[in-house]
Amino acid sequence: MQEAHIVSKEKLLPVTVLSGYLGAGKTTVLNHVLNNRQGLKVAVIVNDLSEVNIDAELIKEGGGLSRTEEKLVEMSNGCICCTLREDLLREVERLAKDGRFDYILIESTGVGEPVPVAQTFTYIDEEHGIDLSTYCRLDTMVTVVDAYRFWHDFSSGETLLERQQAVGEDDTRDVVDLLISQIEFCDVLLLNKCDLVQEDELNELEQVLRKLQPRASIVRTSHGKVEPKEILNTGRFNFEKASTSAGWMQELQNAHHTPETEEYGISSFVYERRRPFHTERLTAWMADWPEEVVRAKGILWLTTRNAVAQNLSQAGPSIQIGPAGLWVAALPAAEREATLAEEPELKLDWDPVYGDRITKLVLIGINMDKAVLTEGLDRCLLTDAEMQSNWSKLKDELPNASSEQLEMILSGSEK
Ligand SMILES: Nc1nc2c(ncn2[C@@H]2O[C@H](COP(=O)(O)OP(=O)(O)OP(=O)(O)O)[C@@H](O)[C@H]2O)c(=O)[nH]1
Q1: Domain ranges of the chain
Q2: Is the model more confident about 256 or about 13?
Q3: CA 175 vs CA 163, 187, 365: distances in Å
Q4: Among residues 144, 145, 142, 122, which one has the least CA distance to residue 132?
Q5: Which residues partner with 13 through β-bridges?
Q6: CA-proximal residue: ligand 1, atom 6 (nearest)
Q7: pLDDT in tens, 312-367
Q8: Where does ligand 1 bind, in terms of residues with CB under 6 Å?
Q9: Alpha carbon 239 to chain centroid distance?
Q10: Ligand 1 pocket check: which of 28, 45, 153, 196 to mutate, most ligand atoms within 8 Å of Cβ?
Q11: pTM of the full predicted structure?
C-alpha cells in the first residue's frame, strides 16, 4: 500500500529548473547559487545526455554542496524531458519524502525541452501513480541564454543531429527551434556571458528576448553570478501563464502588445486575412524569407489544404508548416453545428462565407517594414479571379502534405 504523504501547501518543497542550450552556463549558475545559498539545504539533480556526467563532476569540484547534509543526484545517459522522465519522477519523490531538504535544484540537459519537465511537476502521472504536486511545487523555470553565441546559434540553420547533439536518431530538431522553445517557456531569463558582449549589442538582444518572452524577468549575468533570490523561491511559476507567455501568443491574443523600441527597431505585428494563400506563391515568398523577421508564428489558410488549418512556426532560418486541425467550417454540417454549440465563442469570429477559415500570423523582427511585408504576403493571396477558379488545379509542393491530409482536403473541401 502507498504510504500517505500529505504536506501543507506552505511546506511543499520548492523546485527550480535550469534549462538553456549547451554551454550557456547552467552549471556555472548552479555552482554560483550553491556557494551563495544562504543556509538552504539543497538537493541537486543534474541531467546529462552522455554516460559521463561532466556537469556533476563540475558541481562536486565547485564545492558548494555539503557532502554530509546535501545530495547530488546524477541522471545520465538520457534526457529528463523524455527518456528519463520516469527516473525524474521517482528521484524527486524520493528526495521530497526524505524530508531533509529545503530546496531542489535541477539542471536539465542543454537539449532538453522545458515544457515536459514542467508537466512532470504539474500533472499526476497516471502510469506510475505519482503525483509530485503532493510533495513539491515548481517554483521557477529558468532559461540561461548565452549572450555571446545567441545570434550564431539562432541563425546557424543547423540541426542537433548535424551538431551530434541529438537525443536520438529520430531527433530532427533544429538548434534554433530548441532555443526558441526554451526562451518561450520560462519565468526567468538569465542573459549570461555578458562580459563577452558590447553594451549596445546586449541592449538589442535583451529587447529581442523581451519581445519573444514578455512575461519573464530578464537578468544579465557574467560567469553565472546571479542573486539567488532571482531564481530561488520566486513563486513565479504558473503552468497556465507560462504556456501562454510567448510573445507571439500574447500578440495574437492582443493581450500584450509590447511597444516598439525605437532605438533598436524591434517590433511585432499581426497579419490577418480572410482570404486563402496561393500555396505556390506563398512557398516562393517563404523560400526567400525576409531575414529581418526573427520569429513568426500563427495559423495559415492555404487553398490547397482548404479543410485543414496549418500551423506556421518560423525562428531564424527554420520554417515549419504542419496541420493544426480541421477548420470547423470543413466539418460535415451536423458535426459543425454540434461544435459551434459546444464552443459558442467560435461564433464571435465566424465569417458568413468562410466560417473560421482565416490567416493570423504574428511577425516579430528587427527593422521590419510592416507595409512591405504586408504587401509581399498580400501578393501571395488568391486574386479575385482566382477565387472564382477551380482550386483543385492549384499546386502544392510543401513537403508535409501527406496523402492522408490531402485526402481530407479533397473530401472535406466545400469548394
Ligand atoms: N566568459 C564567460 N564564460 C562563461 C560564463 N559562464 C560560463 N562560462 C564558461 O562557459 C563554459 C560553459 O559553461 P557551463 O556552465 O558548463 O555551461 P552549461 O550550460 O552547464 O553547459 P552544458 O552542461 O554542456 O549544457 C565554461 O567553460 C564556463 O566557464 C560567462 O558568463 N562568461
Answers
A1: 9-245, 266-412
A2: 13
A3: 9, 21, 19
A4: 122
A5: 136
A6: 223
A7: 999 999 999 999 999 999 999 999 999 999 999 999 989 999 999 999 999 999 99
A8: 20, 22-28, 55, 110, 192-193, 195-196, 222-224
A9: 13
A10: 28
A11: 0.86
Superfamily of domain 9-245: P-loop containing nucleotide triphosphate hydrolases (3.40.50.300)
For 8-61, the three-class secondary structure string (H helix, E strand, C coil) is CHHHCEEEEEEECCCCCCHHHHHHHHHCCCCCCCEEEEEEECCCCCHHHHHHHH
CA distance 406 to 415: 14
Instruction: Identify the pLDDT of residue 412.
Output: 35
Consecutive H or E run containing 278: none
48 forms beta bridges with 76
* Distance in angstroms (rounded) separating the CA atoms of residues 208 and 89: 35
List the one residue out of 110, 124, 130 whose CA is nearest residue 49. 110
Rounded to whole angstroms, how far apart are CA atoms 352 and 197?
54
| Average pLDDT score, the chain | 87
C-alpha cell at position 330: 470543413
**Nearest atom of ligand 1 to the alpha carbon of 21:** 25
304: enclosing H helix or E strand:
none
Instruction: Give the model's confidence band at 393: pLDDT under 50 very low, under 70 low, under 90 confident, else very high.
Output: confident
Record the cell numbers describing residue 224, joined without a space.
553565472
The second-level CATH assignment, the architecture, of 266-412 is 2-Layer Sandwich (3.30)
In the prediction, which pLDDT does 136 show?
92
CB 130 within 8 Å of CB 93: yes
What one-letter code names the amino acid at 48? D
Residue 308: strand pairing partners:
326
For 399, how many CA atoms within 13 A lie in the half-sphere containing its CB? 4
